Amino acid sequence: MQKHIETFSDLKLDRSIQKAVAETGYTKPTPIQIQAIPFLLDNHDLLGCAQTGTGKTAAFALPMIHNLISTRAKPNPKQPRSLVLVPTRELAIQVHESFVLYGKYTQIRTAVIFGGVGQNPQAKAIASGLDVLIATPGRLVDLMNQNLVSLKNLEIFVLDEADRMLDMGFIHDIRKIISYLPKRRQNLFFSATMPSEIEKLAKSILVEPIRIDITPVSSTVELISQSVMYTELADKKNLLLHLFKDKNFKKTIIFTKTKHGANKISELLNKSGIKTDVIHGNKSQSARQRALEDFRSGKNRALVATDLAARGIDIDDITHVINYEIPYVPETYVHRIGRTARAGKNGIAIAIAEADERSLIKDIEKVIGISIPVDRDHPYHAARVESHTGKAPKIHGSGGGGNRGQRRPSQSGDNPSGRNANSQQNSKQNSHRSKGQSEKRKPSDSGNKSEPKKSSPSAKKSPRAKKSRYR
Questions:
Q1: Mean pLDDT highest for which of 353-362, 405-414, 424-433?
Q2: 169, 170, 129: which is closest to 149 by C-alpha?
Q3: Eight-state DSSP code of residue 396
């Protein structure tokens, strides 16, 4: 039975980590941190069903840093001791920043790799030897194929946002990566939802895992005030501009289904004097990072985003989330509105729906288990739309993964080929060595065969993970 935990000091983390956490101003761990950290410190495998905004990153980063510095093993060139696999560049950067922050008083070595930028600085960082590598699947497979990284001595494997990996078409890359992992390792598996294919993948990786469920997808954050505004399609833009007359819309994310739609809304708002930027798959890495920073700092009131581009963005104090276009998948709505009401604060989520989206609102209400209040107190309310009973038109395309025919975006946050170098990556962003007292380290236990150079073995040949114990 776990000891009662109220503050981070109640967790058995190394003093250097405790000091770094204290400097962030956090004192009380979140529910997933309270439940997960003690088990991870004991090297258990973990299956976590948790959305962004729950403190998930710290839940695995803190015990990982503790265990890595406790074993005092020296990382070998090209052979990272741990791997965190994430679906998008933005999330990769944010996870890396968390490891840098929490490990700044240790000697832990970290690096982040992703597509869309030159690979040379990334390869150089890996060659120096790493304790933690954060990676997107496409770039990692690319470097593995070039023998620039080896996973044969990996001690800890983290698969984050597995459901989004599936949606983005990375399942084959993931299976290939898993097939190269040593049998003796600790596994951490996180997903906001658990479709059948994700459950099968989890079972193939984990051994006797501890399961933790935080904020199930069927429920939304209680602190979010939700409403839906019904209007005619032709009045959607006018209603959006009307909302921004309210000065309380200080930091607002607006979601659209397509990149073209996102550009149009950003252009509309900027022409109306509302400082706005946009992020989607066609934006260069530097442009996306600049847009996020301008939004985070308050320079821009609004950020227009597509779902894939926004996944994993963790920005505090978002006041409003506007669903300008209603998603076809109800769970996507849950992910969208979860951008607000972080860290115990209140937030507001507004859905702007036209007639063809009326049935989508009904689908969302079934999933979240409540009726979303209708806001008629605006000049563009359409009673005809509110009472519409027709179904949403089907979107034809090659979509999969349970997206009900919704077209899969042609470009994700990661570039699987890793050969689009439109922007340059700062070498300091790729690699970081934290300041702190040096430690003597012993070589880590390996005992696994060398990695093949060529094509991916079949998923059926993937070795089943076995429980890690580093004691």
A1: 353-362
A2: 129
A3: P
Q: Which residues contact 362 (CB under 8 A, 6 or more apart)?
A: none
Single out the residue of 133, 9, 16, 33 nearest to residue 70, CA to CA.
16
- In tens, the pLDDT along 227-254 reads 999 999 999 999 999 999 999 999 999 9
Look at strands 82-85 and 186-191 and give their pairing: unpaired
Measured CA to CA, the distance from residue 249 to residue 291 in angstroms comes to 18
CB 64 within 8 A of CB 11: no
pLDDT in tens, 363-416: 888 878 789 999 999 999 999 999 988 766 544 332 233 333 333 333 333 333
Measured between alpha carbons, how far is residue 56 from residues 2, 33, 93, 124, 191 in Å?
19, 7, 15, 29, 10
**Using CA atoms, how far apart are residues 345 and 234, in angstroms rounded to an integer?**
34
- The DSSP bridge pattern shows strands 186-191 and 156-159 to be parallel
What is the pLDDT of the chain when averaged over all its residues? 80
Instruction: Could you list the beta-strand ranges (E) of 75-169.
Output: 82-85, 109-113, 132-135, 156-159
List the one residue out of 153, 151, 164 whose CA is nearest residue 91: 164
Give every CB contact of residue 87 below 8 A, 6+ residues apart in sequence.
Answer: 136, 137, 160, 161, 164, 165, 168, 170, 311, 312, 412, 413, 414
Instruction: For residues 384 and 218, give the distance between their C-alpha atoms in angstroms, rounded to a whole number.
Output: 29
More confident residue, 23 or 216: 23
- 277, 304 in Cβ contact below 8 A? yes
**Residue 350 in contact with residue 375, Cβ under 8 Å?**
yes
Q: Is 431's pLDDT higher than 60?
A: no
Contacts of 418 (CB under 8 A, 6+ apart): 115, 116, 119, 138, 139, 142, 143
Measured in whole angstroms, the distance separating CA 261 from the mean position of its chain's CA atoms is 23
For residue 7, count other CB atoms closer than 10 A to its CB: 12
Hey, CA dihedral for 143, 144, 147, 148, is it positive or negative?
positive
Let me know: does 82 contact 157? Beta carbons within 8 Å. yes
Amino acid type, 301:
R
Contact present, 114 and 133 (Cβ < 8 Å): no
DSSP symbol at 450:
P
Task: Domains for the chain: give ranges and CATH numbers.
Answer: 8-217+416-461 (3.40.50.300), 224-386 (3.40.50.300)
Please name the residues in contact with 99: beta carbons below 8 A apart, sequence gap of 6 or more. Answer: 61, 64, 65, 108, 110, 132, 134
Question: Which residues, other chains included, contact 197 with Cβ-Cβ below 8 Å and sequence gap of 6+?
Answer: 166, 171, 401
Kindly give the pairing relationship between strand 186-191 and strand 46-49.
Answer: parallel
